[in-house]
Write a structure and sequence with these properties.
Blueprint (H helix, E strand, L loop, with lengths): L1 H21 L11 E6 L9 E8 L5 E10 L2 E12 L4 E7 L11 E9 L5 E8 L4 H18 E5 L3 E3 L6 E10 L7 E5 L5 E3 L9 E2 L7 E9 L4 H5 L8 E5 L8 E3 L4 H14 L4
Parallel strand pairs: 1-7
Antiparallel strand pairs: 1-2, 2-5, 3-4, 3-6, 6-7, 8-10, 9-10, 10-14, 11-13, 11-15, 12-14, 15-16
Length: 280
């Protein structure tokens, strides 16, 4: 009995050692010429899809099988796949952006698991630049949205068109109901987009406190088309991403997030654009 137990322990130890060796991927400096960037395509601004761009400035092919991205403002991201990047080429590895925490810079680092040509797997860690600042803006929007959500519940009402033709305006009532869970948070107004401008009676540059004892407040967003160009509407990707300004001692100046709109509400905006501009 004792010998059997000893043998089982020895076998288990050998198997564990073999498994450990199998996962022992050598870590080494990233090859000179390999650069990583984190960014978001303009066409994806309505969602949370971003990408890690790997530039292969070497003279050999690189096949990425995994990456792990870490940042003080994000939960760890892990991507698994099989992406071969030819010499002097680049590839975008897409992933869903985690909800970001409040903070300053993204300061992202990426650990790549990859092969050079048909070689063995290796591992390297490289800083992921936020070249155009889009990742940081994404995180700042999350922070602004989280800050407002702590202070007030937000509800977007039904769109209504007032007037006719070029004298018309589309109105969206936005109700903010303080929760009492945060203090010092204020609503700062709505912003325009490339497709729509805020009308004269819209709440744009305001300072509305959202304290726990305050009653619900209805803030009116009223918009008109910024231009009557059919090509602008046909090619639009961000025309209904209206900034909601949030003010708080914990937020940077000009903090904002995109007003959450349903598909029906966005459709009403596009229909209004066509009617207003005589394109419908």
């Amino acid at each position: 009995m004792g010998m059997t137990v000893v043998r089982l322990v020895m076998i288990g130890a050998l198997l564990a050692g073999a498994a450990a060796c199998g996962n022992d991927i050598p870590s080494e400096p990233v090859p000179s010429g390999v650069i990583a960037h984190i960014d978001q395509s303009r066409v994806e601004r309505k969602g949370r899809e971003v990408f890690l761009r790997i530039e292969n400035g070497t003279k050999t092919d690189i096949t990425v099988e995994k990456f792990q991205l870490t940042s003080p403002r994000l939960a760890t991201v892990e991507w698994i796949g099989d992406e071969t990047i030819g010499a002097t080429y680049e590839a975008d590895l897409e992933f869903e952006m985690p909800r970001a925490r409040c903070g300053t810079a993204i300061d992202a680092k990426v650990t790549l698991t990859y092969r050079i040509d048909d070689g063995e797997l290796r591992e390297s860690t490289v800083r992921a630049d936020d070249t155009y600042g889009n990742a940081e803006l994404f995180a700042d929007r999350d922070c602004a949205e989280l800050t407002l959500a702590k202070a007030a519940d937000l509800e977007v009402g039904d769109p209504e068109v007032i007037g006719h033709g070029p004298d018309s305006v589309l109105q969206l009532p936005v109700t903010l109901t303080p929760t009492g869970k945060a203090s010092g948070v204020r609503f700062g107004g709505f912003g325009s987009t490339v497709l729509f401008s805020q009308a004269a009676d819209s709440r744009t540059d305001v300072d509305v406190p959202l304290e726990g004892a305050d009653p619900p407040t209805v803030q009116l967003m009223a918009v008109v088309p910024a231009r009557c160009d059919p090509h602008a509407l046909a090619e639009d990707k961000v025309g209904t991403l209206f900034p909601v300004s949030v003010r708080s001692p914990e937020l940077p100046d000009n903090a904002s997030f995109f007003l959450p709109l349903t598909k029906l509400q966005r459709s009403a905006l596009f229909t209004f654009f066509l009617t207003y501009c005589g394109l419908g």
